[in-house]
Amino acid sequence: MPADPRPGPPPLTRRSFGRLAAGVAGGAALAGCAPGRGAPSRDTPLRVMGVNHVWSQAISKYVPEFEELIGRRVSMSLLTADQLSNSYNVKLNASGTDIDVMMMRALQEQLLFAHNGWLADLTGRVTGDAAFRWADFLQAARERSTTGGKVLSVPIVTERAALYYRKDLVAKPPATLDDLMETSLRLTDRGANFFGFVGRGQRNGSVSQWSSFLYAFGGDFTIDGRSGIGRPEAVTAYEYYGRLLREAGPPGATNMTLEQAMPIFAQGKAAFYVDADAIYTNFLDPKVSTVQDTVAFAPVPAGPRGARPYNIPSWSLAVSRFSLLQDEAWEFLRWAAGPEMVARIQADGIPGARTSAWSAPATLASFPPDLAAAMRRSSEIGVGHDRPEVLQVGRARDIVGRPLVAGILGGSVPAVARDADAEFADFLVRDNRYREA
Predict the structure, then answer these.
(1) Is the pLDDT of residue 66 over 90?
(2) What integer pLDDT is reported at residue 60 of this predicted model?
(3) DSSP state letters, 370-423
(4) Average pLDDT, stretch 54-66?
(5) Residues 39, 41, 44, 48, CA torsion sign
(6) CA pair distance 402, 68, nearest whole angstrom
(7) What number of CA atoms fall less than 13 Å from residue 421's CA on the CB side?
(8) What is the structure's pLDDT at 41?
(9) By its UniProt entry, which InterPro entries does this protein fall under (predicted)?
(10) CA–CA separation, 332 and 70 (whole Å)
(11) For residue 282, what is the DSSP state?
(12) Which of 230, 248, 254, 326, by CA, is between 20 and 30 Å from 260?
């Protein structure tokens, strides 16, 4: 991704970084090095493990700057999400010291990693460093970074649900879910292989995108610690989303993940698409999109309880509890997620987690104006999770997704929702026992 030619915040200097670091020098022992192990030499690199993501690619451009500031080489390993999870499981189960900084999904992995004792406690560092400005992070992102009263990660990338639509087909985006349904049904022309709506429908993968519909109808995955997916609000949300894909969506919707749904809209075969705002560049790239001149962006339409899109930290940084370079790892976090760097990277079109970046016009200039307005609005009203907040997230999503599939196939949603609700209630009891063990 090329550097933004517009003037941005001045780069950090060794002197300014030293001023920032001074405030945590005395508190560095809060996380400390793992007991009983010697300090590594200056030749030992700081090892950062992450996913191959636009944020990782963007930050890698600036790593030489950090290496100069810290006086130590940085080794970055970028993997697929599955490879990254497998690597963490192998290395951290063995208390391996060859990971210092961890890029991870707070909503998918933090509870489990915290339960396993793999994450260093960052509470004293983030709250004791005035220059880091912990309160500047979006509230929902800060909440997801905290487990058991301890800050265990720092958010770096956020995403919200967005409505992608064809402005050549509708004069303005639908304001309500009723409008979305009516317009989607009207524009569907199966004979011409054109669909009013496309979205994820695969049992596990659709749960996160369905969450915004669930919230708009007044439901949630859990309510007061108990399953919420059998309640009337959830059943209505299941039925709505199922009908939308069944009657206005493409065939084979129950097999559609992001990789299958997104190209249908990008190739001009659908009028509306709801998915994460972070994928917007796919529709502006003429190499993969035929709608770059006709796509527009809006918030997810409102339901009976208003517009309630998810607003989540999709990726965060953490420090391995087994790292022998925890002080240096923390300095990488405070550099990579500091106010200056977040402003730089958001100006490159990668949505960050700081309120200051979202309120600065320069950092929003790289986004299409209607998308920037939608993102900003959703960051203010959004819900801080898009999946059940449990240890075994994958299993929970499988249970929650069962009624979604039933709705798409035209089955009895209330009956399947009752069964799934009972299964999820039992799962929550077992999951909590596991968490407390």
Answers:
(1) yes
(2) 96
(3) HHHHHHHHHHHH-BS-SS--SS-HHHHHHHHHHHHHHHHHT--HHHHHHHHHHH
(4) 95
(5) positive
(6) 52
(7) 20
(8) 86
(9) Bact_solute-bd_prot1 (IPR050490), SBP (IPR006059), TAT_signal (IPR006311)
(10) 9
(11) G
(12) 230
Question: Is 272 part of any domain?
Answer: yes
**pLDDT tens figures, 15-28:** 333 333 333 333 33
One domain, residues 46 and 70: yes
Residue with token string 């560095």: 28
Mean pLDDT over the full length of the chain: 90
Spatial separation of the C-alpha atoms in residues 148 and 436, rounded to whole Å = 11
Give phi and psi for 311, each to the nearest 5.
Answer: -145, 100
Percent of the chain with pLDDT over 90: 84
Q: In the structure encoding, which two tokens stand for residue 129, read together? A: 């460093």
What are the tokens at 411? 């089955």
How much is the average pLDDT of 216-226?
Answer: 97
pTM (2 decimals)?
Answer: 0.84
Please give the residue range of the domain that contains residue 395. Answer: 168-293+390-436
How many CA atoms within 13 Å lie on the side-chain side of 158?
34
Question: d(Cα 399, Cα 423) in Å, to the nearest integer?
Answer: 7
Total structural domains in the chain?
2
Among 275, 417, 394, 318, which residue's Cα sits nearest to residue 114? 318
**Mode of pairing for the β-strands spanning 226-227 and 270-276:** unpaired
CATH number, domain with residue 216: 3.40.190.10
Q: Which one-letter amino acid corresponds to residue 260?
A: Q
Backbone angles phi and psi of 103, in degrees to 5? -90, 125
Number of residues assigned to the chain: 437
DSSP code of 221?
Answer: S
Q: Is residue 6 part of a domain?
A: no
Task: Tell me, yes or no, whether 86 and 128 share the same domain.
Answer: yes
DSSP state of 300: P
- Residue type at 63? V
Cα 111 to Cα 161: distance, rounded to the nearest angstrom: 23
